[in-house]
């Protein structure tokens, strides 16, 4: 069916063109002969081809253009009276004798154009006559093209300011009236196309109709080009009349296109000054009109205008552009009850963009927009519509992008209320956007209030929202989110300790509600943030220390203690242990012995009760030893208790090598290489000896295992390894010996070292599986040699050791 | 043969000339045989004067029982061709019985001749004015010569000339209101008007304005009516919607119209009508006919 239609269309077009060409040939012959009668006859016949109803608008346009070209030469002929000998007045009558209306009116327009040109009568009379007479063509397509022709030929003959057709009785007003009338009529014709033709091909008709829209819009373009249309005339005449037509035509396609046209063709400052009029039209448009796009375009133009020229900003204020736009949007949303929520939000996004560009200083405006959005969303369930959600994200992101300082967004009271309407997933996305923005701009959040607001905003990340099942979460995403929160915590900072403490308390309040899964991520940064404050207080020294000062390290430590405790329920004992130790160290630096002791106690309790995995134990014990070693705040009693415990734990580790390592590490607890550090040589030696014993025991166990294993070759390698390992333990213990020897521990005598060296040497020689040249041992020996040769006190000390 | 022809040849030539032939306006006139000739134009109450010359064939004499010139106003019905009804008949005796040997000229004059009707050439009837010169002879039969002339009568612009305004329609289907600016138009007039569409429920394709001439001849049961469409002028292309108004501007000059003739001597009438025709997409015609009066306005020249 359809291909046939197209073929027919082409066929008819070809026929039409052929006929026009034939008549045009005769027409030119008549013109060459200066024969007016013939010229009129053939031109009328040629124009009769335009009476066809068979062509689609597209093809009709082609046909029209052919005729249009021919009419130009006819116009030239009419212009030259000497060629035809008929006065223009008579000619104007003569062409009206034609019986068929379409050719008659085309000819009338052609002569009319010459008539205006002759200036024998006021241009306005001719224009008025032409535009009136054209009413005779009521067929939409033919009428549109006829009027388009009228518009074309009259365009350079309008009595505009500066045109030589102005003056006398002719004023710009006449030009404007003419164009407006032609516009109105064309629009009516265009709209009428909608209601013609069968419904089955409605879509096709709509498409065809759309192709013709520029014919109508062209009139508005002409109006915008008329010099004499100044702001006043635009305001008083042009815009009201155009809008009247737009509203009256009640056609969504036309309304949308024409509003778009108005916004595009007239200057920005006109729009600004007539904002109210323009906006008042919007709620009157058909509910199916995409008013939001229209308004968005308008706001887009205005914001560009404002952006391009700072000088015009006062004008925006003067006309209260924001208030007007805002109320117009409200009315449109109200009027178009069926408008999907996404539409309304899109409008708010545009308004927000406008506000941010034009009134960047008016946060209250921004908040108003968000407030309006909240109002629209209120009473509705959370957004399900994807596009709407996207728009909300855009709405919320805009202020963040504009104000590089995210903190600004925190002062918007409606901001979190809008976020509430997002579904949980998007809420999180938005929270991430906020955090990213903070990170990107390196904004520092510096008051407790802001922290409160911020955490309220990102609460989607902070805690489980209702209705989210845990299974839905992607583990990786979750970790990303929580890491972001962790990073965010580091961005919260204030120099003033008091405020900082408040902020810390606020943060704590929020993160504690996060549930076990989040605490693992959020507590560490919180702890470090708090410890930073502690150090800061320390740095300020005694200046601020006083009875009344609310912010004391003590308080903070209390807080920390409670916080970390929460981790043990997660459970994440290893992490808690580390944090306790960190705190203990900080307390140490603050000279708060009881607190440090308390932290250690907590750490030990954790170790005892929660850390069961042997590997974890090894790590934990080393951490404990390391931290404890650095503590100087403890008195002898406390210290003894703690070191004793630590040593005890070390000796109770599961694997011998681990025991050995932990025990010799413990030796350092008794020998702090400081000015007034503990130097308990005896206990150091005890530790070392014990370590050696353990290493020996390990070695023996390994040898026994090897001996009994017999043919089971599979284990040989493993056993070899363990033998090597235990030997290595001895070697490492030797290093400790050397260390304390060097440091002058009186309990470490060179004989012991000598013994160890020999023991190792023997072992190396006896053990065939072990490579005789153990690099570790070799370098140890080299070191002893080096110390020997160094001479001096140290050289003497080492001299007696034989290697 | 020549002899024979010569026997039937009139023995004299008669010519009729008008005194003001040089200055009088000549207009084309279609004769019975279809030829168009130029004839002088008169109007009622004018003096018609001239000369009749009788010139015998050389060497012959014309013997007659008297010579007269008649001015005749005649109506001829085509169903009764050749039978003229004279509504005006004026006679001037030019010569008493006698003999004419050489060319002799007789002046004549009809003064302030009442010629109430215009020359008319219609479908079934014509009205003509003619000068008829008769040389009466006894046995040989009379010698007759005719000279046609035209009569046109001018009217002043009518003192009352109302517009024609009317609302017509088909219930729930089509309601229009049309207006013609006048009811009486002169021959070179322009019809200005408007058509308002009050209700349109049919798909109109186009709208024409026709000028129709209705010539009725005879009377009583013998009345014969002939209607011609002289003009078909397209007013509108396409389907209007409610509220549209379509302008009318029709120049009458291109059409061959005559003034309206009402009951000319009880023989015939010529009336004019404007017929507004709307054609729908199924080619059904909806029309409304309104009579207009056409009159001849004195041309300024």
UniProtKB/TrEMBL annotation, chain A:
Signal sequence bounds: none
Stored InterPro entries: ARM-type_fold (IPR016024), Vps35 (IPR005378), Vps35_C (IPR042491)
Keyword Cytoplasm: yes
Topology in the lipid bilayer: Peripheral membrane protein
Recorded superkingdom: Eukaryota
Any one Gene Ontology BP term: retrograde transport, endosome to Golgi
A GO CC term attached to the entry: cytosol
Keywords of this entry: Cytoplasm, Endosome, Golgi apparatus, Membrane, Protein transport, Transport
A UniProt-annotated Pfam family: Vps35
Cell compartment(s), UniProt: Cytoplasm; Endosome membrane; Golgi apparatus, trans-Golgi network membrane; Prevacuolar compartment membrane
Family affiliation: Belongs to the VPS35 family.
Purpose: Plays a role in vesicular protein sorting.
Protein name, UniProt field: Vacuolar protein sorting-associated protein 35
UniProtKB/TrEMBL annotation, chain B:
Localization: Cytoplasm; Endosome membrane; Golgi apparatus, trans-Golgi network membrane; Prevacuolar compartment membrane
Pfam families, per the entry: Vps26
Keyword set, alphabetical order: Cytoplasm, Golgi apparatus, Membrane, Protein transport, Transport
Gene Ontology process terms (BP): intracellular protein transport
Gene3D superfamilies, per the entry: 2.60.40.640
An example Gene Ontology CC term for this record: endosome membrane
Role: Plays a role in vesicular protein sorting. Component of the membrane-associated retromer complex which is essential in endosome-to-Golgi retrograde transport. The VPS29-VPS26-VPS35 subcomplex may be involved in recycling of specific cargos from endosome to the plasma membrane.
Topology relative to the membrane: Peripheral membrane protein
UniProt similarity note: Belongs to the VPS26 family.
Subunit structure: Component of the retromer complex which consists of VPS29 (MAG1), VPS26 (VPS26A or VPS26B), VPS35 (VPS35A or VPS35B or VPS35C), VPS5/17 (SNX1 or SNX2A or SNX2B). Component of a retromer subcomplex consisting of VPS29 (MAG1), VPS26 (VPS26A or VPS26B), VPS35 (VPS35A or VPS35B or VPS35C).
Source organism phylogeny: Eukaryota, Viridiplantae, Streptophyta, Embryophyta, Tracheophyta
InterPro entries in the record: Arrestin-like_C, Vps26-related
Annotated protein name in UniProt: Vacuolar protein sorting protein 26 related
Keyword Membrane: yes
Main location per the UniProt record: cytoplasm
């Amino acid at each position: 069916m359809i291909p046939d239609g197209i073929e027919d269309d082409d066929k008819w077009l070809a026929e039409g063109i052929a006929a026009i060409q034939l008549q045009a040939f005769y027409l030119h012959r008549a013109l060459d002969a200066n024969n007016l009668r013939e010229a009129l006859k053939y031109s009328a016949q040629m124009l009769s081809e335009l009476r066809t109803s068979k062509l689609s608008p597209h093809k009709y346009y082609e046909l029209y253009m052919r005729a249009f070209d021919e009419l130009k030469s006819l116009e030239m002929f009419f212009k030259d009276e000497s060629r035809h000998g008929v006065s223009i007045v008579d000619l104007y009558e003569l062409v009206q004798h034609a019986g068929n209306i379409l050719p008659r009116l085309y000819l009338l327009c052609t002569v009319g154009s010459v008539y205006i040109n002759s200036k024998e009568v006021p241009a306005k009379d001719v224009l008025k006559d032409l535009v009136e007479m054209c009413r005779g063509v009521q067929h939409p397509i033919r009428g549109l093209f006829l009027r388009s022709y009228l518009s074309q030929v009259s365009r350079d003959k309008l009595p505009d300011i500066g045109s030589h057709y102005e003056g006398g009785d002719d004023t710009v007003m006449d030009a404007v009236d003419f164009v407006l009338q032609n516009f109105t009529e064309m629009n009516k014709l265009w709209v009428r196309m909608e209601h013609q033709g069968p419904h089955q091909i409605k879509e096709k008709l709509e498409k065809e109709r759309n192709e013709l829209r520029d014919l109508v819009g062209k009139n508005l373009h002409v109006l915008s080009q008329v010099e004499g249309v100044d702001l006043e005339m635009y305001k008083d005449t042009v815009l009201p009349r155009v809008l009247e037509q737009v509203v009256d035509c009640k056609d969504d396609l036309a309304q949308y296109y024409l509003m778009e046209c108005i916004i595009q063709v007239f200057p920005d400052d006109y729009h600004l000054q007539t904002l109210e009029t323009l906006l008042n039209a919007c709620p009157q448009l058909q509910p199916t009109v995409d008013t939001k796009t229209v308004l968005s375009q308008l706001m887009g133009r205005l914001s560009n205008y404002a952006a391009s020229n700072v000088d015009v900003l006062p004008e925006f204020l003067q006309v209260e552009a924001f208030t007007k736009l805002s109320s117009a949007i409200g009315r449109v949303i109200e009027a178009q009850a069926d408008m999907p929520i996404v539409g309304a939000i899109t409008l708010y996004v545009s308004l927000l963009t406008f506000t941010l560009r034009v009134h960047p200083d008016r946060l209250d405006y921004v908040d108003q927009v968000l407030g309006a959005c909240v109002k629209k969303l209120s009473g509705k369930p959370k957004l399900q519509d994807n596009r709407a959600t996207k728009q909300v994200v855009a709405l919320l992101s805009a202020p963040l992008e504009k104000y590089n300082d995210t903190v600004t967004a925190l002062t918007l009271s409606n901001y979190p209320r809008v976020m509430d309407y997002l579904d949980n997933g998007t809420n999180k996305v938005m929270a991430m956007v906020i955090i990213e923005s903070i990170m990107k701009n390196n904004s520092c959040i510096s008051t407790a209030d802001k922290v409160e607001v911020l955490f309220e905003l990102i609460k989607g990340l902070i805690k489980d929202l209702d209705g989210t099942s845990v299974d839905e979460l992607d583990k990786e995403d979750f970790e990303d989110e929580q890491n972001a929160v962790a990073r965010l915590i580091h961005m919260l900072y204030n120099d003033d300790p008091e405020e900082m403490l408040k902020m810390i308390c606020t943060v704590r309040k929020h993160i504690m509600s996060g549930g076990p899964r989040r605490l693992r991520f959020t507590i560490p940064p919180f702890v470090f943030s708090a410890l930073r404050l502690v150090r800061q207080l320390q740095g300020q020294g005694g200046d601020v220390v006083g009875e009344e000062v609310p912010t004391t390290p003590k308080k903070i430590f209390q807080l920390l203690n409670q916080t970390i405790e929460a981790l043990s329920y997660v459970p994440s004992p290893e992490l808690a242990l580390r944090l306790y130790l960190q705190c203990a160290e900080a307390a140490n630096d603050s000279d708060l012995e009881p607190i440090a002791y308390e932290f250690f106690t907590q750490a030990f309790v954790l170790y005892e009760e929660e850390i069961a995995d042997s590997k974890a134990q090894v790590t934990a014990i080393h951490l404990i030893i390391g931290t404890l070693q650095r503590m100087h705040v403890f008195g002898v009693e406390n210290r003894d208790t703690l070191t004793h415990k630590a040593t005890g734990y070390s000796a109770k580790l599961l694997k011998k090598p681990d025991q050995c390592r932990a025990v010799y590490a413990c030796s350092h607890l008794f020998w702090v290489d400081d000015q007034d550090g503990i130097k308990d040589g005896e206990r150091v030696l005890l530790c070392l000896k014990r370590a050696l014993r353990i290493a020996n025991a390990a070695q023996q166990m390994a040898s026994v295992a090897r001996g009994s294993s017999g043919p089971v070759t599979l284990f040989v390698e493993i056993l070899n390894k363990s033998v090597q390992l235990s030997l290595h333990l001895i070697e490492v213990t030797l290093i400790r010996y050397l260390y304390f020897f060097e440091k002058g521990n009186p309990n470490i005598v060179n004989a012991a070292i000598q013994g160890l060296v020999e023991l190792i040497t023997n072992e190396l020689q006896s053990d065939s599986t072990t490579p005789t040249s153990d690099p570790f041992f070799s370098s140890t020996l080299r070191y002893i040699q080096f110390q020997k040769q160094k001479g001096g006190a140290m050289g003497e000390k080492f001299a007696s050791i034989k290697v | 043969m020549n002899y024979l022809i010569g026997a039937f040849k009139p023995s004299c030539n008669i010519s009729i000339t008008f005194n003001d032939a040089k200055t009088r306006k000549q207009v084309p006139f279609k004769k019975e045989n279809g030829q168009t000739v130029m004839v002088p134009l008169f109007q009622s109450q004018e003096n018609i004067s001239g000369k009749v010359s009788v010139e015998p064939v050389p060497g012959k004499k014309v013997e007659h029982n008297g010579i007269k010139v008649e001015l005749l106003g005649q109506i001829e019905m085509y169903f009764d061709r050749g039978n003229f009804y004279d509504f005006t008949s004026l006679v001037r005796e030019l010569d008493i019985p006698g003999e004419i040997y050489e060319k002799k000229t007789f002046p004549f004059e009809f003064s302030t001749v009442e010629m109430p009707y215009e020359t008319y050439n219609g479908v079934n009837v014509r009205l003509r004015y003619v000068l008829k010169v008769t040389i009466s002879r006894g046995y040989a039969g009379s010698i007759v010569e005719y000279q046609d002339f035209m009569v046109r009568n001018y009217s002043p612009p009518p003192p009352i000339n109302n517009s024609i305004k009317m609302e017509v329609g088909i219930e729930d289907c089509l309601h229009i209101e049309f207006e013609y600016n006048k009811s009486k138009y002169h021959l070179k007039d322009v019809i200005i008007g408007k058509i308002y569409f009050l209700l349109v429920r049919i798909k109109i394709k186009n709208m024409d304005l026709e000028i129709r001439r209705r010539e009725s001849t005879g009377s009583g049961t013998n009345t014969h009516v002939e209607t011609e469409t002289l003009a078909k002028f397209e007013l509108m292309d396409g389907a209007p919607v409610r509220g549209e108004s379509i302008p009318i501007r029709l120049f009458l000059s291109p059409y061959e119209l005559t003034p309206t003739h009402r009951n000319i001597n009880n023989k015939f009438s010529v009336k004019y009508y404007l017929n507004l025709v709307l054609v729908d997409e199924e080619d059904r015609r909806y029309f409304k006919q309104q009579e207009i009066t056409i009159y001849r306005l004195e041309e300024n020249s």
